[in-house]
Amino acid sequence: MIEINNVSKWYGQFQVLTDCSTQITKGDVVVVCGPSGSGKSTLIKCVNGLEAFQQGNIVVNGTSVGDPKTNLPKLRSRVGMVFQHFELFPHMSITENLVIGQTKVLGRSKEEAQERGLKLLDRVGLKSQADKFPGQLSGGQQQRVAIARALAMDPICMLFDEPTSALDPEMINEVLDVMVELANEGMTMMVVTHEMGFARKVADRVIFMDHGHIVEDATKEEFFGTPRSERAQQFLSKILSH
Amino acid sequence: MNYHWNWGIFLEQVKAGEETYLDWLITGFGWTLAVALTAWVMALLCGGIIGTLRTAPQRGLAFFATCWVELFRNIPLLVQMFLWFFVVPELLPRELSLWIKQDMPAKEFVTAVLCLGLFTSARVAEQVRAGVQSLPNGQRMAGLAIGFTLPQTYRYVILPMAFRIIIPPLTSEFMNIFKNSSVAFAIGVLELTFQARQMQEDSEQGIETYLAVTVLYFICAFVANRGMAFIEKRSRVPGFIATSK
Ligand SMILES: Nc1ncnc2c1ncn2[C@@H]1O[C@H](COP(=O)(O)OP(=O)(O)OP(=O)(O)O)[C@@H](O)[C@H]1O
Ligand SMILES: [Mg+2]
Q1: Residues A20, A27: contact at Cβ < 8 Å?
Q2: Among A77, A82, A83, A91, the residue to mutate for chain B (most B Cβ within 10 A)
Q3: Which domains does chain B carry?
């Protein structure tokens, strides 16, 4: 489903990603973790072409992301993305947030899009908020709407960039629950997160990044059993202890 | 001061004609509104486009937009008025130049609108650019991630918020355009300032004339201000607190 082959990326002189390779097969849930600044966000944004990379290639569902001939908007419309700061469109109601991509990008009728949007809103437990605006919802609610918005496009896979790290602790679980459900339904997911509970529950593999390198790419059992690299061990002991 | 006050002057007939001085001022007021409002529509359209282009990732487009802004905001408005009126037609092909000078309908009006519209567009463009840049980059990413093209992302995501954010500075540009339209008198548009000068010379009641004109300009600016405040209120986003990046 997602193949990342020897990807390197520079910001000017500064190398953010060095020779990153991994594969995510259909239905897999892969958790990406690592210290701040290690390049996790950059890597996940390369997958749907929000960031360009200079070397290597990424293939999503048979389409090469780096190829200049690729229709990136079309590819992105099939890859759901959820951001740390939700990024709902503040001037649109919740329903409009869910509808606009379906009508303007997928060409669905307004009625069809609304029906689909409301169904997904119900699924994330927010049907009663349909007519509110993003600024009137809590962070956890906004993030659940953001997930519904991505799902409304019928994505073939989902990317999450620290979906819970901007949330107050009591709201983290309502978002994680939605993600766990999604994982259990067989959605292909690439999730940047430090929520190791989530990783333990649903991840198939865990990737550990440091300084732009993929240092560890292991099954969940291997990773939580005995990480092979010292840096991953240090990182784990730090985030598991607090 | 032995000035002879005469507030009844507005209802008196002008020296050579049937109309009253009030008719002159009303005609002038009408042209002022016409110049200012037409130029404002033009300034919003061009300013919106140019301001957007200034934030575009394509270097060439951004450079073109920067040149536009620098050109129109670094030359005094009055000089621009004369340039458009006297110089630009000379630079055009002969046929066109002749047509403009002899046959173009409402030549002064068209020139004044073009000049004032472009001048103000540079200022609007700067506001639009600032508005776009004040939005978090995540909004652009979210628009693109949903599958919008970059123009769609601007159209549906970025510009609706950017324009809301810049309503206060746009309000003062809108008020300025009425005041700046008085420069059009220099190329012979029969707007309020032009008519006021004519009335002053004709009637020799300069004080009444300019007090009346002052009130009329004041009303324009005041109504413009209230109108924009109304739009701001109508377009307010529920629950949205302006965040600085
Ligand atoms: N636009 C940019 N220009 C220059 N450097 C950048 C840019 N964006 C990110 N970087 C740098 O690239 C590195 C990787 O950034 P990235 O956001 O991918 O890290 P991250 O692993 O997601 O960190 P965090 O956990 O803080 O989100 C950082 O050192 C960052 O400073
Ligand atoms: Mg990050």
Answers
A1: no
A2: A91
A3: 32-191 (1.10.3720.10)
